[in-house]
């Protein structure tokens, strides 16, 4: 009391204590306080305490408490707990963390809707919706907690019990709690109570109390035998309990005499008896006993959280609120669930009579409607037949309908005109006229398709030619079987269309296509002739001019340079024409492969830098420093694009300069866009000329004569850029200059190992090698022979085709074959295949030359067995690089190492090796000699193993040995041997055993040269 007064008058802020005690004192002392919330702890209920041995006293007290009506309990609580106005609780419950978590994870609760216990749970007859006091209480719980309750229907209470046990439902909403609590479930706090009563037929004076039930048949609800403790007990023995399916069934059993009495909860009995039809038929005579049955919900024993939540809601709900719900349900009168038999019979008779009258009315109306529809259907049928006949007759081609007995059912005027008869004369006939040859052919054609359509049961179509008086005509004829179940026999729809004009057009089109194909073949032949007959001598001319320019003593070098420039322009024009033809035919192919960006673009930049210097122009290059080293692209075509753009800029620029910019725009780790910008300070382009610059042979007005060119460069650039998936944009101002932007999506690639161009190039191959030169063009053979002699090859044999070369191989010994790929009698590809097929020449190096720079030509050469592929015009640098990679054999290197020790190159290599060894051995001569001995012995063993592995075809073992030799060469600083091992590893990875054998000899020879230098260092140290 003091604590409450302290809070009321400001001495304290909060009071914590028992709610009932606080509410009583607040009410008695009229303190200005309110109870606002409950604590988070579960308080135990108020109970009586007794010794555990006083079981009889405990049982009697429990029975007395259960017998107290709930209204009395409410009055007692109101008297002693005080006014309910002192509870000003929020709607939020005080829940534990586990309970709140349960609400968030289990928002929906399934409950068993066994609608057999009104007014707690039942279904209204008018709507069929589940309702009752249990549903009202669940709605109250849902408002307080946010839970939603979902009904799951079951036919019997036993099925609902089983569903709760196996987890199909979470809650039973209306469980009567008697002396024996139900097993396998845990009940909640009760929300209603009732008593069990005995109901008999009205006027049955034989049963006035429970003692009169001896030997009687008593109907009970399923699973309620535990509540049937009759007190006082029947005098003449126990009654016979008969279970009914549900409450309505029990009342029907009572009314038809199947049972003498029924036992029900009082509230349920009152609910049914309150209906007018049952009030005069049945009556309640006595309670089953004095016990009070509590109505509660039930959950599984393991669902303690849901039990606690429901109990908190029920216990925190004011009693008057629950009493209001119960009061509303007791006054509620639902739709009748069961009716008396006399009333039902009267209703049935009235219903039957009304139904008969409705049926008679409907029958009369239906007959009238049927007659009306028949008349209207007949009229519609006549109109439809007339419309169908008019439609068939209006068709601009011949149509007929024919039955399976061959009789013509219908036809149109076009069909009749073919026979020279009116339509009516043909309808019904089974034999068509055959007065003319055309009619005979037409009848045979129609008869054939008509029979095929009936036999195969599918549509038949054909193109036929009919003879005529002046000229034949083409027709498209058809016969389609129709499914007509009501006709009694099959019907075929047939006819024909004159397609003479279409056929003439098709024949003309085929002839035009044949002519176009012939013209295309002629063009291909012409282009092949241009490629071979013009480019071949042009390559010879360019090669000879190159040789003359390389000769310091050659007179007229300026004139030769001018001629060479003119020849290159002519060759560039021919290449543009060939590329244009390939692009128009859709045969312009790309060969994307990993390409070093710097190396791939070095050649056009160097060429145009020299050309710009000759015109007094500057060529600036701006390359993105973040540019990937290697990109997956067609390097040849990319150089062609940049070369065309730089060539156009150079052609139209007389002062100032040209700028080439390369930028990389990354999209992700491996993809990006290469932006190429070529900007010049030339004459610029007028706006009206821009649209035709990207067309074949398109040039700006007035530039063709003054600047030359064919107008193919930009068109080829646009075609190549489009094939690469990019775009090209040209911006220009007349008199100021032009800027061309190219954007191409590309992918980064892993750099590939290749023999670098800076390898030392030997010049003594030819002193001991003999070369067979095969070419059907004499100037080209002369060019190749002169180039070989320039490189030191003094012994050469010439052949004009593959067959002559094979004949020479039979009685001549050669070491190298240099052959053209395209020859008149036997091509270079066939010649290489024949050489590889003969075991005597299988290991001969074969180098192919072709003016076709496509990737397909290179692949064809390698698949034919050629060692390497060279593109015409073949420059001396190309021959040197190729021979350097493939023609290093042991005898040559040994001789260079042993006989030419005074050669400057040899001395330089030896000096480099010596410096490397001294650095490793820290200038200790003994350590250096020991290291030399170990390296030589290890390399000699590796050389023997390498020779055996290569000859035995063991690529994996050979690659491992080559890798080991490469590591030793890196220690010694022998770059030439290192690069040779890299090339051998590459050939072994590509399974090119023929090339690997040749390269292995090169590696072995270089190892011998290295050993000679190392031993020479040892000898020099001893001296």
From TrEMBL:
Subcellular location: Cell inner membrane
Domain of life of the native organism: Bacteria
EC class of the enzyme, as a word: transferase
Modified-residue entries (Phosphohistidine), positions: 963
Gene3D superfamilies linked to this entry: 1.10.287.130, 3.40.50.2300, Histidine kinase-like ATPase, C-terminal domain, HPT domain, PAS domain, Periplasmic binding protein-like II
EC number: 2.7.13.3
GO molecular function terms attached to this record: histidine phosphotransfer kinase activity; phosphorelay sensor kinase activity
Entry-linked Pfam families: HATPase_c (PF02518), HisKA (PF00512), Hpt (PF01627), Response_reg (PF00072), SBP_bac_3 (PF00497)
Residue span, HPt domain: 924-1023
Membrane topology annotation: Multi-pass membrane protein
Catalyzed reaction equations: ATP + protein L-histidine = ADP + protein N-phospho-L-histidine
Domain Histidine kinase: 529-748
Membrane-spanning intervals of the chain: 352-372
Functional summary from the UniProt entry: Member of the two-component regulatory system BvgS/BvgA. Phosphorylates BvgA via a four-step phosphorelay in response to environmental signals.
Protein name as catalogued: Virulence sensor protein BvgS
Organism: Burkholderia ubonensis
């Amino acid at each position: 009391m003091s604590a409450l007064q302290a809070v009321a008058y400001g001495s304290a802020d909060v009071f914590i204590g028992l709610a009932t005690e606080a509410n009583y004192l607040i009410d008695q002392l009229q303190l200005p306080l309110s109870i606002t919330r409950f604590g988070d702890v579960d308080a135990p209920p108020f109970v009586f305490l007794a010794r555990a041995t006083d079981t009889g006293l405990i049982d009697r007290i429990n029975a007395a408490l259960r017998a107290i009506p709930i209204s009395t309990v409410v009055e007692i609580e109101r008297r002693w707990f005080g006014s309910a106005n002192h509870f000003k609780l929020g709607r939020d419950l005080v829940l534990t963390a586990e309970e709140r978590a349960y609400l968030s994870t289990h928002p929906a609760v399934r409950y068993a809707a066994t609608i057999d216990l009104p007014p707690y749970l039942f279904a209204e007859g008018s709507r069929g919706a589940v309702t009752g006091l249990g549903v009202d209480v669940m709605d109250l719980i849902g408002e307080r907690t946010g839970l939603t309750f979902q009904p799951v229907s079951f036919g019997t209470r036993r099925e609902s019990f089983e569903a709760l046990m196996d987890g199909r439902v979470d809650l039973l909403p209306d469980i009567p709690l008697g002396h024996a609590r139900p097993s396998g479930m845990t009940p909640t706090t009760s929300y209603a109570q009732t008593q069990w009563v005995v109901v008999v037929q009205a006027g049955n004076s034989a049963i006035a109390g429970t003692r009169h039930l001896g030997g009687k048949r008593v109907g009970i609800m399923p699973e309620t035998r535990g509540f049937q403790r009759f007190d006082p007990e029947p005098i003449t023995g126990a009654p016979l309990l008969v279970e009914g399916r549900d409450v309505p069934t029990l009342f029907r059993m009572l009314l038809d005499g199947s049972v003498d009495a029924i036992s029900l909860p009082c509230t349920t009995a009152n609910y049914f008896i309150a209906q007018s039809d049952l009030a005069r038929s049945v009556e309640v005579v006595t309670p089953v006993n004095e016990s009070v049955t509590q109505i509660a919900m039930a959950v599984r024993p393991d669902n303690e959280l849901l039990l606690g939540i429901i109990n908190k809601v029920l216990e925190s709900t004011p009693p008057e609120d629950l009493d209001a719900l119960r009061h509303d349900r007791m006054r509620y009168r639902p739709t009748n669930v069961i009716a008396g038999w006399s009333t039902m019979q009267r209703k049935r008779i009235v219903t039957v009579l009304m139904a008969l009258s409705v049926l008679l009315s409907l029958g009369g109306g239906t007959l009238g409607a049927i007659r009306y529809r028949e008349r209207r259907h007949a009229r519609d049928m006549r109109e439809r037949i007339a419309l169908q006949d008019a439609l068939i007759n209006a068709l601009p081609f011949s149509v007929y309908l024919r039955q399976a007995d061959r009789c013509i059912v219908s036809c149109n005027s076009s069909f009749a005109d073919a026979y020279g008869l009116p339509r009516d004369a043909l309808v019904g006939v089974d034999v068509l006229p055959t007065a003319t040859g055309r009619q005979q052919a037409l009848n045979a054609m129609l008869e054939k398709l008509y029979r095929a359509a009936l036999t195969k049961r599918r549509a038949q179509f054909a193109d036929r030619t009919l003879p005529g008086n002046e000229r034949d005509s083409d027709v498209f004829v058809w016969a389609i079987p129709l499914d007509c179940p009501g006709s009694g026999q099959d019907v075929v729809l047939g006819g024909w269309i004159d397609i003479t004009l279409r056929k003439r057009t098709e024949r003309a089109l085929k002839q035009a296509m044949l002519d176009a194909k012939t013209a295309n073949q002629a063009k291909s032949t012409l282009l092949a002739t241009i490629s071979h007959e013009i480019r071949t001598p042009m390559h010879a001319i360019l090669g000879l001019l190159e040789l003359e320019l390389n000769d310091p003593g050659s007179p007229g070098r300026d004139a030769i340079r001018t001629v060479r420039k003119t020849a290159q322009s002519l060759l560039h024009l021919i290449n543009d024409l060939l590329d244009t033809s390939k692009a128009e035919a859709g045969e312009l192919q790309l060969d994307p492969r990993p390409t070093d960006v710097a190396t791939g673009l070095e050649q056009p930049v160097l060429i145009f830098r020299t050309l710009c210097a000759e015109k007094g122009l500057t060529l600036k290059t701006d390359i993105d420093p973040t540019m990937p080293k290697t990109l997956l692209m067609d390097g040849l075509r990319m150089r062609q694009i940049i070369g065309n753009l730089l060539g156009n800029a150079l052609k139209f620029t007389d002062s100032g300069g040209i700028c080439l910019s390369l930028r990389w725009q990354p999209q992700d780790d491996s993809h990006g866009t290469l932006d190429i910008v070529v900007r010049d300070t030339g004459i610029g382009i007028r706006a009206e000329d821009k649209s035709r610059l990207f067309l074949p042979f398109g040039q700006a007005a007035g530039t063709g004569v003054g600047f030359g060119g064919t107008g193919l460069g930009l068109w080829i650039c646009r075609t190549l850029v489009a094939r690469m998936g990019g775009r090209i944009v040209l911006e220009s101002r007349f008199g100021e200059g032009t800027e061309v932007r190219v954007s191409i999506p590309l992918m980064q690639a892993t750099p590939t190992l290749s023999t670098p161009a800076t390898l030392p190039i030997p010049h003594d191959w030819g002193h001991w090698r003999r070369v067979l030169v095969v070419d059907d063009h004499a100037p080209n053979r002369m060019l190749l022979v002169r180039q070989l002699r320039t490189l030191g090859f003094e012994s050469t044999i010439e052949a004009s085709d593959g067959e002559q070369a094979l004949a020479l191989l039979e009685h001549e010994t050669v070491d190298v074959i240099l052959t053209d790929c395209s020859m008149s009698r036997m091509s270079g590809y066939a010649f290489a295949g024949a050489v590889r097929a003969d075991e005597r020449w299988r290991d001969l190096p074969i180098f192919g030359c072709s003016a076709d720079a496509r990737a397909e030509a290179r692949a064809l050469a390698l698949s034919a067995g050629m060692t390497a592929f060279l593109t015409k015009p073949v420059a001396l640098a190309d021959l040197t690089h190729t021979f350097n990679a493939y023609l290093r054999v042991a005898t040559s290197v040994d001789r260079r190492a042993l006989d030419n020790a005074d050669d400057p190159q040899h001395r330089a290599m030896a000096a480099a090796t010596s410096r490397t060894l001294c650095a490793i051995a820290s200038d200790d001569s003994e350590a250096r000699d020991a290291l030399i001995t170990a390296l030589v012995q290890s390399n000699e063993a590796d050389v023997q193993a390498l020779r055996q592995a290569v000859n035995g075809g063991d690529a994996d073992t050979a690659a491992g040995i080559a890798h080991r030799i490469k590591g030793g060469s890196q220690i010694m600083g022998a770059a030439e041997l290192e690069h040779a091992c890299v090339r051998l590893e590459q050939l072994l990875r590509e399974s090119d055993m023929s090339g690997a054998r040749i390269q292995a000899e090169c590696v072995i020879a270089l190892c011998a040269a290295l050993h000679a230098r190392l031993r020479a260092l040892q000898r020099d140290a001893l001296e």
